[in-house]
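During the reporting period, our protein records have gained a structure token line. A sample record is set out beneath this paragraph:
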Amino acid sequence: MRPVSVISGTMLPLPRANVDTDQIMPKQFLKRVERTGYGEFLFWDWRRTPGGELDPGFALNQPRYQAAKVLVAGPNFGSGSSREHAPWGLQDWGFEAVIAPSLADIFRTNCTKIGLLPIQLPASEVSILTRLATERPESRITVDLESQTVEAPGLSTTFEIDPFTKWRMLNGYDDIGLTLRHLGEIDAFELTRSRVLPSLK
């Protein structure tokens, strides 16, 4: 995956609580095996009116938010099923980080496995970012993973992340990348195996 270091850009506000993965990426779009191409289906139902037209009132449809790199969400974001397609869709749209007062555990883990940085901040700080993104959408935010800092107009704070996940994201290691770091050891082990046993080759 792409290494994560510094993320700088504008924000999109989505101040809704308990946004589940079925709303982020509805079930009818889970038929593809590729990890790309899901961005167009993001928040499919919320983006549309009952008549099926794009709702100009929904932030994702507004021109001022089209280039946003950071999604500022409400509490318990990413709850519901464990579908990986939800973070895939967010990343495919162009988001590089998700900030919320709380994030569902599996959703947060799925984000870290593809290089989408999940950040939990106190509700009061998320409220500042939400208001900033709503009232001054041109405002920029800078997230530095190495220093674990978030900087935006009127806010300077830090966030927590476990050391292993931080190291993995800084270096761009997904699960396959972690395995390939031990390719020499894997090859050496395979050479010692009895030929009557099953082989990976």
